[in-house]
Amino acid sequence: MNNPLPRVAAIHDLSGFGKASLTVVIPILSTMGVQVVPLVTAVLSSHSKYKGFHFIDLTEHLQPIIDHWKELKVHFDAIYSGFLGSHLQIEIVERFIDDFKTPDTFVVVDPVLGDNGALYTPLSQNMVIKMRRLVAKADIITPNLTEVALLLGQDYNPTISDEDLRSNILKLADMGAKTVIVTSVPITGQPRRTSVLAYSTGDRRFWKVTCDYLPAHYPGTGDAFTSIITGALIQGDSLPIAIDRAVQFISMGVRSTFGYDYDPDQGFMLERVLPNLNAPVQMSTYEWFEA
């Protein structure tokens, strides 16, 4: 029997306080009309930006959950993974893809490894090596500029030119992904603007979406971005429209939060802007580049 709603397996951790991972993924995809089936990799009292958080590793429970889903013959329209806490979890996700991917399923991997030129503290270089194997199984990957460098074994260059970044994106695509979307790309000579650069191997086209930058960092924006990309593509949006939707929404969420005297580690005020996910796309801002 066909499921009347598109269904996504969301492989992420669950943080109680501070909007990130599943507390962002589930409301966004649900608002977009997508059924979320979470495979919870860990439970945290808060996300890791807060000191002293309590952490429950669920690695040993993942396979029994997956085995039960096999018995239920659950079908997924998309498989979407985010932060993974160990190389063992990466191996489990690899097997999950092998077991559940069908010709009608696309795989989204957000290779959460680091930011601002550094590997996240809990992670090791072994995680980078394992993540290279996982992105090879993905249809869509959404690294930031730091993660591009880590995946390719390069030094981080925050002032990388568009030409060099496009060359790196092609190298990532050669690893296996059909679509590469790079976030948090600075624009030379425009410090108050940032961009997203993407490439699709199907039509060999590059797309770029730019937006104004505000001096604020909110955890969970990367999770929100990739969740919107996933939901938009399931709905049938083109790649540039999906990126436009995601950039517009994140910009709106940041602006809705920035004016408050507010602890930014709580994440942006998602609840204030969720209804906008069902609004028509506004004037598109994407640019097209030849490969």
Question: What's this model, at a glance?
Answer:
The chain has 291 residues and is α/β, with parallel strands linked by helices. Helices cover 37% and strands 25% of the residues.
Please name the CATH architecture.
3-Layer(aba) Sandwich
Low-confidence runs of at least 5 consecutive residues: none
Order of helices and strands: EHEEHEHEEEHEHHEEEHHHE
Assembly context of the chains: single chain
> How big is the Rg?
18 Å
Could you give the distance between the termini? 42 Å
Structural class of the secondary elements? Answer: alpha/beta
Beta-strand percent range: 15-25%
Assign the CATH class.
Answer: Alpha Beta
Shape: globular
Account of the protein in words:
The protein has 291 residues and is α/β, with parallel strands linked by helices. The chain has a single domain, classed as UDP-N-acetylmuramoyl-L-alanine:D-glutamate ligase (3-Layer(aba) Sandwich). The chain is built from nine helices and twelve strands. The strands form two sheets. It has a ten-stranded mixed β-sheet with strand order 3-2-1-4-5-8-9-10-11-12, sandwiched between helices. Strands 6-7 form a two-stranded antiparallel ribbon. α1 links the parallel β1 and β2. α1 (22-31) packs parallel to α7 (221-234) and α7 runs antiparallel to α8. The longest helix is centred in the C-terminal third of the chain and has 20 residues, at 239-258. The chain is globular and about 55 Å long. The model has no long low-confidence stretch (mean pLDDT 92).
Q: What are the defining features of this structure?
A:
single chain; 291 residues; ten-stranded mixed sheet; alpha/beta; globular; two-stranded antiparallel ribbon; UDP-N-acetylmuramoyl-L-alanine:D-glutamate ligase
